[in-house]
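Issue: ligand-bound run for IPE - logging full I/O for the record.

Environment: standard queue, default settings, no custom constraints.

Inputs:
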Amino acid sequence: MALRKNKITKDTKIPRHIAIIMDGNGRWAQKRLMPRSFGHKMGMERMIGLMEHAFDLGVEYITVYALSTENLKRPKEELEGLFNLFRNHFKEYMARVCDRGVRLRALGDVSLLPEDVQKILRQSEKDTSAFVGKGINVAVAYGARDEIVHAVNKAVETGEKVTEESFSRLLYTGEVPDPDLIIRTGKEVRLSNFLLYQAAYAELYFSDKMFPEFSDKELDKAIVEFSRRTRRFGKTDEQIEQKE
Ligand code: IPE
Ligand code: IPE
Ligand code: MG
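Outputs:
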């Protein structure tokens, strides 16, 4: 019975857009006396498996927080290790998911990254730009405050007043719908400058698992928990029931 409780069934509501703060890669590796860069590689591999599983379940968008603007202040050696992952594995790993017709978008101030890494991201965006429906967003050199300031400056340039909708389109996420479920692994209970505008009505889920050990079953558990929650968007239960 305990097992069935976390099982996805035909009645489970599947979130359209899941955003993931993949935290805990470094601690996971260090606990195993391995370099932090090994944790980042295992995290990236786990993320690909998780994406394949999520798309199989019917999720349409997956946003992954891979590197924050604040992370850019990490030791040079760790950053180089992360960039080498992009240089050596990003294309091959992403192809596994994108070959199913998934569009890739990079969110963030990509100009802060080394030029060759920028190129890899731009090329992946270009190669998948014709795909509609499913999407992967890789938040890299991403900070929500930077994103909001960037959008405000764009709005100021046009000189036109914005609405909630038009402002939302100026964010790095553009036309991508807001996340329904935000998952953070790694035991921390905070957003760390992730999707602050878009998260207004997202359901939040925190896992004690370090990201490399966040299995497909753990994702199922998060989705079942999401499905159990009542999203009221400010309304009363009665109003929600009437609509259903
Ligand atoms: C998250 O894992 C991935 C990145 C920030 C690049 P961390 O590197 O923050 O891992 P911990 O939190 O130190 O374990
Ligand atoms: C958040 O993780 C950023 C990413 C997962 C990319 P951090 O490890 O940087 O967050 P803090 O510093 O613990 O808040
Ligand atoms: Mg961390």
